[in-house]
């Protein structure tokens, strides 16, 4: 008969070994004394744990200082974990949660050939308005919140190179069609950690977007919220909520 999770007690030695790995990962390299000061565990136990992790290839030891550091074996495990993640299903759940919580259309888009490609969209119980962008629909990078959120991860030089291949058009009176104005907008996006589309791509549609990052700190895509109005108070509130969700997802996908 399977043992209930509620009855399972953590194995202390494994918990302590994980604490050691996490402490070293955070600091880069630590001695037994430093681990003792940081974790409060006794030195004999720490020495046995470090020796075991060293023997199994998870730690290296500096022969001069005695400091322990992580090996690439931990990196290999992390990469395999990320590869095995069904990240689209994770993102779908987040879209559903956001749309249900905020009453807005939530979408996940990726960058493809200097455009935004919508892969997933969720509208909880019908938000009461429609948007042009659908699953499989392409939109510009320069005038969508998802696109600008992704662009914010690139250097200004990289953005200007992309600009030359974006086929920029004035879609509404609010569309940014000047490269320097776009860079100014991207600078604001970097400061607040979310991007805005204030009727820049479509009349009557206001959007806010944040980027998802992978373990290489490169953009996987962006999650955006769309509504028929977006006050400054809304921007701050939705931005905070959206950022919490995308940071959590990024962490699950290996970003740290």
Characterise this structure.
- The chain has 256 residues and is an alpha+beta fold.
- Helix content is 45%, strand content 18%.
- The protein contains 9 helices and 8 strands.
- The chain has a 6-stranded antiparallel beta sheet, sandwiched between helices.
- Strand 3 and strand 4 form a beta hairpin.
- The longest helix is centred in the last third of the chain and has 21 residues.
- This is Transcriptional regulator.
- It holds the Pfam family IclR_C.
- InterPro entries: GAF-like_dom_sf (IPR029016), HTH_MetabolicPath_Reg (IPR050707), Tscrpt_reg_IclR_C (IPR014757), Tscrpt_reg_IclR_N (IPR005471), WH-like_DNA-bd_sf (IPR036388), WH_DNA-bd_sf (IPR036390).
- GO terms for molecular function: DNA binding; DNA-binding transcription factor activity.
Mind sketching the topology for me?
Layout: H1 12-27, H2 32-39, H3 43-55, E1 59-61, E2 68-70, H4 72-84, H5 87-102, E3 105-112, E4 115-123, E5 138-140, H6 145-151, H7 156-163, H8 179-192, E6 195-198, E7 206-213, E8 219-227, H9 232-252
Antiparallel strand pairs: 1-2, 3-4, 3-8, 4-5, 6-7, 7-8
Number of strands: 8
Report strand order across the widest sheet.
5-4-3-8-7-6
Which percent range fits the helix content? 40-55%
CATH superfamily label of the largest domain: GAF domain
Low-pLDDT residue spans:
1-6
Major sheet characteristics? 6 strands, antiparallel
By CATH, the topology of the largest domain is: Beta-Lactamase
Q: Name the beta content range.
A: 15-25%
Average pLDDT level: 88
Shape: elongated
Overall number of structural domains: 2
DSSP summary: helix tally: 9
Note the run of SSEs as H and E: HHHEEHHEEEHHHEEEH
Whole-number radius of gyration? 23 Å
- CATH class label of the largest domain: Alpha Beta
Span from first to last CA?
39 Å
Structural class: alpha+beta
Per CATH, the architecture of the largest domain is 2-Layer Sandwich
Organism: Desulfoscipio gibsoniae DSM 7213
Domain HTH iclR-type: 11-72
GO molecular function: DNA binding; DNA-binding transcription factor activity
Protein name: Transcriptional regulator
